[in-house]
Fold this sequence. Notes:
The protein is mainly alpha-helical. The chain folds into two domains: 2-102, no CATH class; 105-179, no CATH class. It is 80% helix and 0% strand. The chain has helices at 2-16, 25-35, 41-53, 58-102, 105-134, 143-159, 163-179. The termini are far apart. The model has no long low-confidence stretch (mean pLDDT 87).
Amino acid sequence: MIYLTLFLTFFKIGLFTLGGGYAMIPLIQAEVIDHHGWMTIEQFAEFVGIAESTPGPFAVNISTFCGITTAGFLGSLCATVGVVLPSVIIILLIAGAATRVLGHWTTKSALQGAKPAVVGLLGVAAFSLISHSFFKDAGEMNLVAIALSIALFTLTRVFKLGAITLILCGAVAGLALQLCGISL
């Protein structure tokens, strides 16, 4: 019975939460602490911290943690499937209609107009990252970071490295530089 309760509770949370994982914190808190008493506020606060710092979507992480503490592995499975299933159903319904909508000239025109805006947003994000990475607090250029970026960019273009490999190479290079006494 606990498994069905976990599934239905997190299904309801997934169904009625708009705005992403953080928007569901009050609803999860009300359900798991106030309504069901599955955990204390202290435990919940710890799980929020853990869910924020682990890879993956926040909603999946927090539901998995709540489910496992309440009813073990099967509890985590029920809670996780419960919180994800409403989104999957909604996306499948939207995808069914999307094929018709995406072919319409108005949708095509709007998407064509949005492309430059997306490029502009990416440019702003890139500029911000470049400024933060290539210049130290005093405004002086960080030549080590610039050289590392150029080297990794070149490796990516020549050897067609994927994003994960590139990030791992950067992490290893950062650790090696730090061990040599060179800070980024």
